[in-house]
Amino acid sequence: MHWKKPWFQFAILMLLAFIWGSSFILMKIGLKSFNSEQAAGIRMLLASLVLLPYSIKNLKHLKKKDLKSLLIAGFIGSFIPAFLFTKAQTQIDSALAGMLNSLTPVFTLIVGMLFHKTKFKWLQVLGLIMGLVGALGLITSGEDLSLGKVNSYALLIVLATIFYAININTIKSKLSHLTGVQITSLAFFFTGPAALIYLLTTDFQPVFETPNWPIHFLALATLGIVGTAIAMLLMNSLIRHASAIYASSVTYIIPVFAIGWGILDGEKITIIHLLFMGFILLGVYLINKKKQTAAK
């Protein structure tokens, strides 16, 4: 494949943006019948089952020195954020979740600077500040974001983006000798049993009493198979061949699709929301400008 070619990397970036930009509305649909923990558990279990043949095939590549990093990729990079996002979306709109998700490149640079000796320029520091100001604005402003309960749920998504940043830096610095398929399949080999054990402890009786629950399950199945398993295969491959910050900049485009789906679903998007999202995206642009300048 053409992983080293810029046009191919950009095409994968756009495909990931569409898949993940659509994931927030799929979560919202799934939550109509399932509680947030069940929705996240189903997502992770189905993703692990789809990847299981690859997991078994790649067990020969599992080395003791990689175990910690693979556990981070599985649990910090996917499992815990899945639960954080579905919990957050019980109280905030899918479009807003997509906006806050665009913080990932900001925290990717912060984690890289603090723990992986990532070099930076002061222009990137300005980008960090703008991104964080934008996030703070989204969390504390607007009709649906009054201080209090909703504020704390929005912070769950911020926490998820920090976990994504840890995962991206870990893969880039510790697992670059493995392919994207190997990283993803081995990571999900550990998360699958955890998801199954958790789901066995939950009560599905209320779900079966909900009208249209098979449709809501189908949304979660799509989320798990396409939005998690396939998307993580693509993302982990991209991280290996591009910079960590470039890969995380997929969140540039995710809000566009998330907002589009939100509008179609009747969610209220205000000028204030778009203004603060603009702060985040401008901050991400400044963070990524280092790579663009260096490439000239």
CA-to-CA gap between the ends?
A: 25 Å
Give Rg in angstroms. 18 Å
DSSP helical segment count: 13
Instruction: Domain count, please report it.
Output: 1
- Looking at the chains present, what oligomeric state does this protein adopt? single chain
Question: What is the 3D shape?
Answer: globular
Instruction: Report the strand count.
Output: 0
Low-confidence stretches: 142-150, 291-296
Structural class: mainly alpha
SSE order and pairing:
Blueprint: H1 6-30, H2 36-57, H3 67-88, H4 94-101, H5 104-115, H6 122-140, H7 149-174, H8 180-199, H9 205-208, H10 213-241, H11 244-248, H12 254-264, H13 271-295
Helix pairs in contact: 1-4, 1-10, 1-12, 2-3, 2-8, 2-10, 3-7, 3-8, 4-12, 5-6, 5-7, 6-13, 8-10
